[in-house]
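Sharing a chain and its predicted structure for anyone who wants a worked example. Both blocks are below, sequence first, C-alpha cells second.
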Amino acid sequence: MQIGDVTVDPDILAAIAAVVLSIIGLFGIVLPVLPGSITIAVGFLIWAIVSGTVGGWVFFGMAAVLLLIGNISGAVLTGRGLKQREIPTRSVTIAILVGIVGMFVLPAFGLLIGFVVGLVGAEYYRVRDWGDAVDSSLAALKALGIGMLIEMGCALTSVLLLAVAIVCHFTWWNAN
C-alpha cells in the first residue's frame, strides 16, 4: 500500500489495528460503555484475514474460544452471584447509568464512584435500610468483580495469543 512516498505493508497496518483494538477491548472489559471482548475479537479477525495464514486463523480460533469462555463464564458467575443475593438487574442498570454520569463529572474516578453510589442508592431505595443496602451492594460488587476478572484473564490470554501470532508471522511464517 502506498501512502504518499512511503510504501506500507498491509500486514503491518493490520497488526497495528489489531493491537489498538485489543487495547481498547481490554479497557472495554473494565468500562461498561465499551464492548471489550468483541473489540478484541474484531481486531484479531482483521489480523487473521489480512495475514491470510493458517497460523493466523488457528490463533484466531483459539482466541475466539477464550474470549467466548471469558464472556459467558463472567456473565454466568455474575448473574449467579446477583441472583443469590436477590439483587435486581434494575439496581445494576441504575448503577451503570450513574457511573456514566460520574465519568463526565469526575473524569478520573467518576465511573467507579458513580457506579458504587448508584448501586448503594438503588439498593437503599429497594430495601429501605442502609445496612442491608451496603451489604447487598458489596455482594453485587464482588459478583461483578469476579466476572470481570475471569473475562479479563481470558482476554489477556487472547491478546497474548495475538502477540505470538504477530511475532510468528513476521519471523517464521514469512521467512521464505
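Comments welcome. Strands lie at 2-3, 6-7.
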